[in-house]
Design brief:
mainly alpha; rod-shaped; 2 domains
């Protein structure tokens, strides 16, 4: 049998068996769309294998067996995915709750943002470098004007002015 004869035979078998195949698969999987997909997968398998191996004695049964195996594989994969999701769900929920709580705390904590803003104010490039350092030590470090003056080896009024 030539390849074109094989393809014509596969087409004829498909026309005869497709409705029965889809109906049986729909009963098995409970979804007509999925049954059609499984039937199409079986047809593709037939188109790949039958030209090399020859058409089986009962092509309709071959198509049904191939489609059923693929359907069973999909169901197994689906149930495994469901089990994995069930195992991961508590961990993901805990992470989400922890993340939401941490975000709420961070949003409620204005100290971090205010301190950062103050650092930027102290280190503004419009100020001379010596004034930036003195202002940062005063506001961020909590040093007095006298302590800063001693660090700079200058007088307290000079630091207090700057």
């Amino acid at each position: 049998m030539t390849t074109s004869d094989t393809y014509r035979t596969i087409d004829a078998v498909w026309r005869i068996e497709s409705a029965r195949l889809i109906a049986g698969l729909a009963r098995m999987v409970g979804d007509v769309g999925e049954a059609e997909d499984l039937a199409q997968d079986a047809l593709v398998a037939a188109l790949e294998r039958w030209p090399e191996s020859g058409i089986p004695d009962n092509p309709g049964a071959w198509l049904m067996a191939t489609a059923k195996r693929r359907g069973i594989d999909q169901m197994r994969r689906g149930s495994m995915i469901d089990r994995k999701h069930a195992q991961l769900a508590p961990e993901l929920e805990a992470r989400q709750e922890t993340g939401v709580a941490a975000l709420d705390e961070a949003l409620d904590d204005h100290v971090g943002d205010d301190l950062l803003r103050l650092i930027f104010i102290c280190c503004h490039p419009a100020l001379p470098t010596e004034a930036r350092v003195a202002l940062t030590l005063r506001l961020m470090g909590g040093l007095t004007a006298l302590e800063i003056a001693r660090a700079f080896l200058t007088s307290e009024p000079t630091i207090a002015q700057g």
